[in-house]
């Protein structure tokens, strides 16, 4: 019978078993690691595809301009003031009213002037009666002097003739004095009547009442300055006053095209031509500090038949220094520093060097080398995976 017990040196050593397990694990994990590395290279290691942004070669209107802000004012307006002192009794108009030339706008209390006119008229009536009386006496005295002259030497003495002539001459002098007094009174009456007429303030022009500066009941003193009561303007033609910096005004010239938009109608372009550039900067008004920024005022006019432009509106002004209409152009971003660009030809970028012309901030004119409708590359980007781990072969 054989002994089933194996020799002790043939049995596996218990200490060797744990040492073999890590090797086995590594052998089992190696294929998995290789697969992971291959997948990572496939996902992150290969070159990322390139995406191109393109824009078509198209016809556009190009423009370079000097920009500035401006203020819209009526081309023709007048400030209506009081020429006499007194209390403003009544305003006959309101802002927005359309008035005609000669229409009464306001009335000033003129009781004193009216009384003076009546007094002078009465004085003239008295002087006229006095002149008539003196005239009758003078006519009688002249007849008496003539009669005494004809009777001289017969029944009249020389002294009687001389007395008659003196009476006649005195009456003539009195008549002349009354005439002078009447002329003076008539002049005073005309002056007082003019003052009375000025108490009724009339419009010097046809237009629209755009502002009222005085109130009914207000005392007006015209002795030192003319108090402004209201402003009338012709709103059919407006003037845009634009302040242009000294760095930009050198690019402006009279007659150049200009357009502007307003805050109320930002998409509407009002077009005009530059009328005038004032030769000196605006003088600061009383109480305003002089600015260190030097601006020059440019003026141009615009028809306003619809009345959409109102006095005091703000305008964004563009003085056109260069323009091209309906020309082929591409975005300026498509052009490289050397003047070349890339065109997508059957899905493949192709570099060309076209002849260019006018440039703006956004576009460049193409004179030759490109056809309308071709697509030019404006930008490119690689669609990289958004991961922190990237394996590059």
UniProtKB/TrEMBL annotation:
Subcellular location as annotated: Cell membrane
GO annotations of cellular component type: cell envelope; efflux pump complex; extrinsic component of membrane; macrolide transmembrane transporter complex
Residues covered by the Multidrug resistance protein MdtA-like barrel-sandwich hybrid domain: 78-230
MF GO annotations: efflux transmembrane transporter activity
Residues in coiled coil: 110-181
Spans traversing the lipid bilayer: 26-44
BP GO annotations: xenobiotic detoxification by transmembrane export across the plasma membrane
Domain Multidrug resistance protein MdtA-like beta-barrel, residue spans: 238-317
Pfam families cross-referenced by the UniProt entry: Beta-barrel_RND, BSH_RND
UniProt keyword list: Coiled coil, Membrane, Transmembrane, Transmembrane helix
InterPro entries associated with the record: MacA_alpha-hairpin_sf, MdtA-like_b-barrel, MdtA-like_BSH, RND_pump_MFP
Family, similarity comment: Belongs to the membrane fusion protein (MFP) (TC 8.A.1) family.
This protein's name: Efflux RND transporter periplasmic adaptor subunit
């Amino acid at each position: 019978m054989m002994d089933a017990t194996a020799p002790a040196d043939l049995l596996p050593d218990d200490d060797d078993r744990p040492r073999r397990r890590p090797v086995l694990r590594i052998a089992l994990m190696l294929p998995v690691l290789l697969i992971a590395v291959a997948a990572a290279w496939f996902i992150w290691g290969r070159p990322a595809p390139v995406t191109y942004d393109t824009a078509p070669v198209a016809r556009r209107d190009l423009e370079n301009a000097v920009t500035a802000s401006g203020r819209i004012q009526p081309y023709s307006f007048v400030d209506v003031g009081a020429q006499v002192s007194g209390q403003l009794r009544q305003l006959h108009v309101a802002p927005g009213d359309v008035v005609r030339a000669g229409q009464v706008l306001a009335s000033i209390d003129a009781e004193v002037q009216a009384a003076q006119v009546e007094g002078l008229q009465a004085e003239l009536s008295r002087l006229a009666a006095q002149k008539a009386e003196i005239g009758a006496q003078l006519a009688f005295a002249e007849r008496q002097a003539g009669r005494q002259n004809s009777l001289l030497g017969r029944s009249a003495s020389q002294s009687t003739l001389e007395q008659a002539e003196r009476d006649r001459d005195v009456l003539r002098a009195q008549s002349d004095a009354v005439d002078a007094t009447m002329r003076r009174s008539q002049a005073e009456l005309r002056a007082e009547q003019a003052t009375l007429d000025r108490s009724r303030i009339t419009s010097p022009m046809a237009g629209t009442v755009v502002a009222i500066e005085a109130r009914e009941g207000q005392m007006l003193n015209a002795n030192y300055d003319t108090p402004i009561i209201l402003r009338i303007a012709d709103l059919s033609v407006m003037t845009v006053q634009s302040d242009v910096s000294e760095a930009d005004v050198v690019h402006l010239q009279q007659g150049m095209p200009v357009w502007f938009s307003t805050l109320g109608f930002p998409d509407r372009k009002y077009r005009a031509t530059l009328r005038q550039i004032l030769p000196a900067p605006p003088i600061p008004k009383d109480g305003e500090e002089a600015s260190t920024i030097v601006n020059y005022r440019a003026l141009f006019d615009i028809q306003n038949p619809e009345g959409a432009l109102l006095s005091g509106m703000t305008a964004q002004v563009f003085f056109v220094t260069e323009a091209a209409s309906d020309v082929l152009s591409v975005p300026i971003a498509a052009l490289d520093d050397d003047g070349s660009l890339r065109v997508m030809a059957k899905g493949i970028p192709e570099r060309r060097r076209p002849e260019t012309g006018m440039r703006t901030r956004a576009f460049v004119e193409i004179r030759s080398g490109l056809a309308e409708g071709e697509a030019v590359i404006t930008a490119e980007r690689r669609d990289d995976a958004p991961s922190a781990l990237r394996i590059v072969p």
